[in-house]
Amino acid sequence: MNIHNNNFTSLLIFFFFFLFSSSTTAFPNFFPNISSIPPSFLPNHTTNPWDTFNKLSGCRSGQKVDGIAKLKTYFHYFGYLANTTGNFSDDFDDALEAAVKNYQKNFNLNTTGELDTSTVNQILKPRCGVPDIVNGTTTMNSGKTTSFQHSVAHYSFFPGTPRWPSRRRDLTYAFDPRNELSEDVKRVFANAFSRWSEWTPLTFTNISDYSSADMKIGFYSGDHGDDEPFDGVLGTLAHAFAPPTGLLHLDNAETWIINDVFTSGSSSSTAMDLESVAVHEIGHLLGLGHSSVENAIMYPTIASGVKKVELDRDDVEGIQVLYGTNPENNGTVGPSFGEREMSGVARGSIGLVWGVILAVGLTIFVY
Ligand SMILES: *[C@@H]1O[C@H](CO)[C@@H](O)[C@H](O)[C@H]1NC(C)=O
Ligand SMILES: *[C@@H]1O[C@H](CO)[C@@H](O)[C@H](O)[C@H]1NC(C)=O
Ligand SMILES: *[C@@H]1O[C@H](CO)[C@@H](O)[C@H](O)[C@H]1NC(C)=O
Ligand SMILES: *[C@@H]1O[C@H](CO)[C@@H](O)[C@H](O)[C@H]1NC(C)=O
Ligand SMILES: *[C@@H]1O[C@H](CO)[C@@H](O)[C@H](O)[C@H]1NC(C)=O
Ligand SMILES: *[C@@H]1O[C@H](CO)[C@@H](O)[C@H](O)[C@H]1NC(C)=O
Ligand SMILES: *[C@@H]1O[C@H](CO)[C@@H](O)[C@H](O)[C@H]1NC(C)=O
Ligand SMILES: *[C@@H]1O[C@H](CO)[C@@H](O)[C@H](O)[C@H]1NC(C)=O
Ligand SMILES: [Zn+2]
Ligand SMILES: [Zn+2]
């Protein structure tokens, strides 16, 4: 009898919790393109949680400025600063200067150790929530020399180089059913997965059974149970966990764009391209860390209104160290590695040029 009552009580509690949580859980904001964002939506969606760092511009070692403590929390979050004393102070101390220098090195900035304008501008950019430095060692800008045209590689792995085991080449993914994602949104992820399967022996299959999928994708607001709370519009956009955890979380609060080519005329200060962020996070699901190559998918920041979905040479080299090449892709066709621009339109036309060159080549061969 008691047991029954207890069960009934917990059922009731669960029921009310469910009612309560579903009424407070906002669904993600998806828009097909920038022009479909209603103007009434934007005023409430323009605050960057890191805007306050603007007023720290020009700060340097030895100063004490209101807001430095929050900046230390930022550097701590992304792995640049150890938390030794409990609370952070507003003193610009030696530890913070070292953190700023490491950050500048990773983002190809002058290593001044000061919060110069380009450093602050970089800090403000929306980014992935995965730390750049795990357990104190940064491999992001270590400058590994590769055999390929003596170029310098900047891809990195998680500590211990976790990857999906060699008997697991056909992986599955599923979407958190609570998000009730549309087919259009799911297709964005299917496209994002195919960017990686094109260059590796891996295949990715969308299954409906969320609990048994290798990789689980969901949109969440604020604190969502993994000690990595989301921070609202901009700031951190998403995060994902190294193999074999397989969790990919995206911030509900972002203005997600699912189908825009982002021509130069269109702009919105908060519109984030969903596929660009998805391709990056899938890189983490497969075992890649961050890269210092600005054109690389695994570069930690991405601006709003930018589509960046094709793997760079640096991404391909990194993922092939973990999994090898795709036996069905000889690598002759594909992204024009190297000097690519960030705009989808510009890349599209480069792709077209490659297609034309290939077609011309084939025609000559046939004749
Ligand atoms: C944006 O999306 C809306 C709704 O799907 C569509 O009607 C409109 O043509 C699109 N605009 C552009 C510029 O693609
Ligand atoms: C924006 O915020 C205000 C005040 O918080 C609220 O009254 C309004 O409904 C919000 N608008 C939208 C489109 O969410
Ligand atoms: C720093 O560590 C202390 C104790 O270990 C903890 O209470 C505090 O929340 C941490 N601060 C940050 C910013 O992580
Ligand atoms: C940290 O700050 C909080 C609030 O400002 C304060 O209550 C707490 O005592 C501080 N802890 C330490 C270790 O300084
Ligand atoms: C780095 O310093 C050089 C020389 O002072 C300057 O020309 C350049 O603009 C600086 N780069 C950045 C990103 O601030
Ligand atoms: C970081 O190092 C500590 C101790 O050296 C270890 O226990 C922990 O598992 C490491 N974390 C990761 C993510 O490798
Ligand atoms: C993904 O799988 C679900 C369930 O199996 C199916 O309804 C949906 O059409 C699939 N979508 C894509 C884009 O593959
Ligand atoms: C390229 O791949 C195709 C299969 O996709 C294969 O038939 C062909 O022999 C390969 N070419 C080379 C040079 O490996
Ligand atoms: Zn990342
Ligand atoms: Zn999470």
From TrEMBL:
Q: What is this protein called?
A: Matrilysin
Question: What positions does the record give for the motif labelled Cysteine switch?
Answer: 126-152
Which keywords does the record carry? Answer: Calcium, Glycoprotein, Hydrolase, Membrane, Metal-binding, Metalloprotease, Protease, Signal, Transmembrane, Transmembrane helix, Zinc, Zymogen
GO biological process assignments: collagen catabolic process; extracellular matrix organization; proteolysis
**Cofactor info, note text:** Can bind about 5 Ca(2+) ions per subunit.
Quick one: which residues bind Zn(2+) 1? 224, 226, 239, 249
Q: Which SUPFAM superfamilies match?
A: Metalloproteases ('zincins'), catalytic domain, PGBD-like
Query: Origin organism of this chain?
Result: Helianthus annuus
Which top-rank group of organisms is this from?
A: Eukaryota
Q: Where does Zn(2+) 2 bind?
A: 128, 280, 284, 290, 298
